Structures are given as structure tokens and as C-alpha cells.
Amino acid sequence: ELKAQHGASANDAIKSDPAIKARVQQLLPAYQQMALRFADMHDTPQRMLAKGVLQGVVPWREARRFFAMRLKRRLTEEGLIRHVASTDVSISRRQALTMVRTWSSMAGGGLHDELAWGSRDIRSEEPSASAP
Fold it and tell me: How many CB atoms lie within 10 A of CB 22?
């Protein structure tokens, strides 16, 4: 119907109609606010924890220390996995990871609690091609 009235596509007619443009501008802030609230309700750490996407919520005050120690542990773990894999090319990444984790548990779990290699952070998938 719009195409017949305006001689163009319905999309072009909507874009060129000043009344529709004004209404869109009037409603845009309300829709943006609704979208923001919707995202806020679904992306909170507590909601993600409840859905099982997260294993825990790190308090803001402890975040820097927690993630610095986690990075240090993961880099050490990765170095050990690469070393194990380089000594025997028949060992898969998963096998090397299992060996490193077993050694860690036999040695007492690591240097610090933050470095302990518990089940909370087990990742045995292959690293992405873009990873160093």
C-alpha cells in the first residue's frame, strides 16, 4: 500500500516521511533505556552465576589480585604443558595437562591457594590458533 502511494519501497517511504522520523526520534530514548535495563538484568554476575555460566563472583576489591595470580598460574601451567609435550610428541595436550595437574596435587597443590590447580579452572581444550 505504501509502495503504491509513494511510488517507492515501503522502507524508503518510512525513511522519507517526516512524521515517522519525528516519532522515531521521540521513542528512541525510551527504547534505548528499555534495552539497557534488559541487558543489565541479564548480564549481572549474580544472574550469570545462577544460570551456571560462572563458577563464582570475584569481589571488586579482590579482582586485580585474583586475576593476576590466576594469570601467573595459567602461564606457568601452559609452560609446563608445552615442556611435557615437547619431551614426547605422542602426548596429547589433554594428557600433558593431566600429568601437570597430577604432579601439582602430589606436590601439595601449588605455592599459594590462588595458584592451586583445582577443578574450578580445568580447561583441557586445545588453544585457539590465534593464541601465542
Answer: 10
